[in-house]
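The following record pairs a protein chain with its ligand, zinc ion.
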Amino acid sequence: MSLRHREPAPAEMTATTIPARQGTYALLLTVERRRRITIGRLGALAAAAGCYVYIGSAFGPGGLRARLRHHLGVAQRLHWHIDYLRRIATPFEIWYREDHHGSEHVWAQTCASLAGASLPLPHFGASDCTCAAHLFHFSTPPSLTDFAARLPPAAAAHRKIHWVTAPAAALPALLRDQHS
Ligand SMILES: [Zn+2]
C-alpha cells in the first residue's frame, strides 16, 4: 500500500504535541500482508492488507496522550480489541479532537459511510454500543477532509480536528509530557 504524503486541508490542523485531555480519535494503521489473527473472544479476523481506521475516545487519566501512547506501543497485556490488531498493524496517522462528551459513535458511523469502507469484523471495538463496529478497512487511506465533511452538523466542531502524520519513530515526540 502506498502511504503517500497528504497535505492537510485548511480545515485541518497539524499537532506538535497531543494533549493530555479528553477527546475522540481515529487511529490509522497499515497491515502489510494478509494475516489471520484472533481478537480475544470476538473471534478470528482475516486481516486483509491495507489501511485500518480505529475509532475511540479517551476519558481516563492522561486523556488522549496516554491513550495514543498506549496504541503506539505494543501492549503486553491485551485488553482492547485494538491491542490484538496492533500486533500486526503499524500506526501511521492520527486524527483527534478534544471534546468532553465523546463523539466516537458519530465518528464510527461517519467513517463507515466513507467510500471504500468495509467492516472487517462486526462488533470490533463496539462491545458496549450499538455501532456495527469501531474498525474499518480501506484499500487506500481515507482523507480527513472527506471524513470531516461528512460529520453531521451536531458534530461540526470538526474544524478543530487535528491531523498527525509521522513515521512511527517521530511519534514519541508528539506524546512527550510537557510542562506548560
Ligand atoms: Zn459505537
